[in-house]
Every structure is written in structure tokens, then in C-alpha cells.
């Protein structure tokens, strides 16, 4: 009985499998070739965020980050679309998908978002209040892979740039300059340490920084050149204070220069801090003035800067 089952069913099946007909062969081959493509298409359509380049928006509370994202997303407030100003403090990071093309102003891009020449990217807004800033964000800037976790979806997106937005109208105040500079110091130092944390000889992809000096519509606002020199002076002060702290705590000068993860921002041996010193670590820093609300230079130069980098 069992041998007849073997003769009638199993033997022909094995013979068939060993000598497949051309049709079976063709179907098998087709499946092998097309299968991965179908899987790839399925995967990329389900998780579109993983491939979108992203830009991280940081800066002190009240500098206008959420107002800037809202402007890029919806355009300026008009009688037809009255926008309530986002005056509340952001409590958690959020991401917004935007379309950009290098030669356009943000308004033309907003009107022609469906055009094929535009590139899509994610702008990630973060809370600026010191208690709400996530240390995870700085840790991600420090890691050699230039990627950032997208809020809510949790997926990783390639990080193309960092925008540090500050309020130029209050920068000259005694409290706000040190506070703003110390946040900027941490951001730049994280990016500098990224350069050292590379594995092997391959340098990590560079992440440029735009210091966007906002609120240029207000008459108290410092011009971009003055924002630059005030920040450089303050960053220099923080730098020597922090290294003095290390020396006082018993860490020798030799230890400091050997340990590349120390708190010294910029190149060794330089008396004054200059943003150009960051180029040594492949961190390009540019300062551009603008304003989200009111009359002034507006946001087009920032938009152009982003368009050239995403
Ligand atoms: N005059 C003027 N006010 C602005 C400008 N940009 C933003 N503001 C105002 O600044 C205030 C703070 O703006 P937000 O966008 O909430 O600030 P934020 O950086 O998101 O602050 P956090 O979420 O706390 O980190 C709001 O009242 C805005 O209307 C500008 O260019 N000029
Ligand atoms: Mg906000």
C-alpha cells in the first residue's frame, strides 16, 4: 500500500521538480526577479519618512521657531486666512513636511508644492525652554551617523542641516545673550564631537548650521553682523570659563588636549573664538538676519539656504 502511494504520487512529483517544464522555470525566474522590486515598492510606500531629508530647528524659547514653521507651512496671515499667532511654548518636538526648490522663494514653493522640481523635506521643531529641551536631540547630533529621529513616527531620517533661530531684538540683554550662546555652544560642540566620533578614516557627512537672527522687524534688533560678533565674544567667554572649570577640577592641560571629547569649542591654540574655526571640524556656520512677522528682510534668504542644503 505504502509503496503504491510512493509510485503514484511522490515519485512523479519528485521527477517533476527535478526536471521542471519551461513554464515552471519561467514563472520561478520571474518571481525571483520581480519579487524584490515589489517588496521594495511596498516598503517605500508604507514608510515614506525614512528617505526624506530632515532639518532640525532649535533655539531658545520665544525665538519664533513655531511661528516660522507655521509660516512655511501655511503662508503669511491674510484677511482670508487669519492665523492665530502661535504664542504658547512648545512642549514636545514636531515635524512638518515641506516642499522646496533652490531658486524659489518660500511663497512660490508654497503655491506650487505639487511641481516636480520641488524637493520634500522635514522641518523638525523643538521646544526651546531649557526644561523641555531634549538631551536626546544633542546626543543625536553627536552620533557619527547624520540622522535624526522623526517625532511621533520614531523613524530615522537623514539630517541635512541645523537651523538655530534666535531673537535678535532681545539678544543684547544681559541674561539672554549668555543663555542663547550657551545653548548654541552645546549644539556646536555636539556637532564638533561628531567629527571625532567617526569610525575608521571615513569622515561623517557634514551638517551645516544656519544661525537665523529673527525679529529684524523690531527696531531693537541687532543687525546680523553684530549678532555674529556678540555671539563669538560670548562663546569665547563660555569656552574659557568651561576649560578653566576643568583645570580647577584637577584635569591637567595635557589631558584636555588629548581627550578630543573635551568641552573646548573650535580649534586649539586660538585666543578668540570665531565661527570660521568650526570649519576645522567640517561644520559650516552662517548667520543670516530675517523676520517671520512684520516688515523686514523676511524669510526668503533662510529658505534659499535650506533649498541649497536639503
Ligand atoms: N516681532 C516679531 N515677532 C515674532 C517674529 N517671529 C516670531 N515672533 C513672535 O514671537 C513669539 C514666540 O514665537 P514662537 O514661535 O512661539 O516661539 P518658539 O521659538 O516656538 O518658542 P518655544 O516653543 O517656547 O521654544 C510669538 O508671539 C511670535 O508671534 C518676528 O519675526 N517678529
Ligand atoms: Mg515653539
UniProtKB/TrEMBL annotation:
The chain crosses the membrane at residues 21-43. Belongs to the SRP receptor beta subunit family. Pfam families: SRPRB. GO terms for molecular function: GTP binding. It comes from the Eukaryota. Residues 74-103 are annotated as: Disordered. It comes from Cladorrhinum samala. Keywords: Endoplasmic reticulum, GTP-binding, Membrane, Nucleotide-binding, Receptor, Transmembrane, Transmembrane helix. Residues 86-103 have a biased composition (Low complexity). The keyword Phosphoprotein does not apply. Its main location: endoplasmic reticulum. It is found in: Endoplasmic reticulum membrane. GO terms for cellular component: endoplasmic reticulum membrane. This is Signal recognition particle receptor subunit beta. It is a single-pass membrane protein.
